[in-house]
Amino acid sequence: MDPLSATASIITVLELALKVSDHLNVKDAPKERLRCWRETVSLCSLLTELKCMMKGEHATEEWFSRVRALTVENGPMDQFKQTLEQLQAKVTSDGRVGEAVGILTWNFNKKELRNIFERMERLKSSVQLALEMAHM
Fold this sequence. Notes:
This protein is an all-alpha fold. The chain is built from 5 helices and no strands. The chain has one domain (3-135).
């Protein structure tokens, strides 16, 4: 995958994460929803830094080959995109967040949330490692 395609993959996931975080950030949200929001925002920060570094002087061939591994088909970025799409489907209804009745629904069970948090942590760790490699 060339640098432009890898960057596009990261931007796609970043934009989806930002969209999902907007849906999750609500006043008086349940603590699980707030945790999802925090995890998503945290990943947005890492992805933004990764995207910026891909355009900078740190983007050596060796470093980029490690970043490219994040963006391969069915790799960490694809997995996180699927996780975000799952979150988005749960917190939105026909593109709205329970606006029709003025309430928000939260349809996750504990096992489902635990799986989502574990997947998010794995991707955040992968991105963090790529960022640390650039500083070495």
